[in-house]
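pipeline/complex-builder :: batch 7 item 3
reading input block
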Amino acid sequence: MKHPKITRAAQGVAALILLIASGMKFVGEPGSVEVFVELGMEPTGRYLIACIELSASLLLLSPYAALGSVVALSVMCGAVIAHVSQLGFALSGDGVMQLGLLASVLTCSIYVLIARRSELPFIGENL
Amino acid sequence: MSATLAVDLEKVSRTANVAIVVFFAAFGAAGTFLSFYFHFLTVAFFLMILLNLYWRHFQTSHTLLANFGFLAQIRYISESVGPEFRQYLFASDTEERPFSRVERAEVYRKAKGIDSSSAFGSLLTYDRSEMKLRHSLYPVDKAQMEPFDVAVGAARGLATTYRIKRPVMISAMSFGALGSNAVRALARGAAAAGVPMNTGEGGYPKHHLVEGCDLIFQMGTAKFGVRTEGGRLDDGKLAALAALDPIKMIEIKLSQGAKPGKGGLLPKEKITAEIAELRGVPMGRDVISPAHHLECVDASSTVAFIGRVQRVSGLPTGIKFCLGRPDELRELVAEMKRQDIVPDFITVDGGEGGTGAAPKSFMDDMGMPLFAALPETHRILQEAGVRDRLVIFASGKLISAGMQLKALSLGADVTYSARGFLLALGCIQALQCNRNTCPVGITTHHQHLQSGLDVEAKSQRVVNYIEALHHDHVELLAAMGRSSARELTEINVSLPAGVSAPSPGQERS
């Protein structure tokens, strides 16, 4: 099924950001390590989230983009919970950029999910 | 006073809807105070809450979801996986349709060259409601069996008369309906076994031609491959196609069993460059297959059109239909006699439906079943005195030697099978032929699904199936006291009530 360019663009943006984010977690970028130390999940949680982000990124670029958007949305929900409950929001420098990226992926994945919801396995027909 | 143990599903669903919220809160607290890992579940339950809110308060399409929420989804999931569960776990060996596991397994065994003898009685219904073959008190020696030989076009004295050497042929399936690997496997098997293959109405048979088997070119109502831009017959294109050596016969499809009397539409999205080239249609525009040939509006014009195709092609030319009204067939045959134009063969297609995608109401309710249509067609042709001028092909669920001999007894000269050969290729009856998702790579164009279908290996299965059918034909004919399939008449079958046999004692061509 062919989708409008805007849907494919949203998939691309979310996939690119998630791909970069997962790469940074895999290589142990100091900022990422610091976050997962604070959450008490270093290093297992970092690798786990990196794997999930990578999967979401690949799914978003595949014919299973609807499923990818759900995985991406889940990761972003987790990130929001982390910031609200433990990390807080740094409203300057890197913090603003991170917040912007988080909001971008969240918006794109919600958009893709709404646009391609009928392709979700099992429940797609009822959405 | 009787007590009934029953589950109040409304209460259960209400509890489940509350439980989702409770679990969300509990895991949220655990994630915050114990370990962040609990938030994996917090997120999952959060998404479930959103979904539940949508189903219960915003959507209006599904009453069950609006009333019960999340748990009602179990019904839809169970329903969607039902066919697979029934096929693999719960359906008995004899109750599936269109072919039961017993019937499918028999084709698989034949295709794989495995012995198919079994013990302890038939698994199928065996009573007066079933048509059965009648054996003879005096079986003939198998060594006395005469080779099968049916000449199509001989009545007109055609130099291009085609001789059919086996009583079963591969029925019409186009490239488009089938993927290229499936077409090539069938065509390679047909060439090796010496049976002709019908191209289906998919236009120029590029993939069929690769393997060099004998072909029956089918011309549907849209005349793909031989059409003018307006959808009428292009004589030049037909003549050029008929001049190709592998094309041995032309079949004009007036109607088909899956959807008799109905046309179709090829949506522009499905018209790839290859399809456009093979079918002779423009890209970027829907193409309509009319319900009838534009040239055929009554008996007179239909017979004239048959004559035109015979003249232009120079090949044995026949028509295919699913029998509807016998009075119309009588009128058509009378017109054939009046114009002295008789098709070289008539294919009678059973209304049971076939590989073609069609609306369910047409598959289930429209058109006469083969074993009712065949004797009627045979009788009408006999009464008109033209039976000896043409050959009857029969198609419709004829996947076993027994079914084929029943058709031959009821008036057919040769039989067609499509689904039998699909099963030989490895079809698992997933019933997804119209979705391009065939899991065994037969009715799909997805390369990754087709890659599992090895053309060489599967073509050997086709050969095995044909050889095993031949073995069964010989065995059954010998037991019936007949030394040739041409000797079969209605006396060789026991008919259930409701099926009328041809007039006894009348010879066919």
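note: Chain B has 17 helices and 14 strands.
queue -> next item
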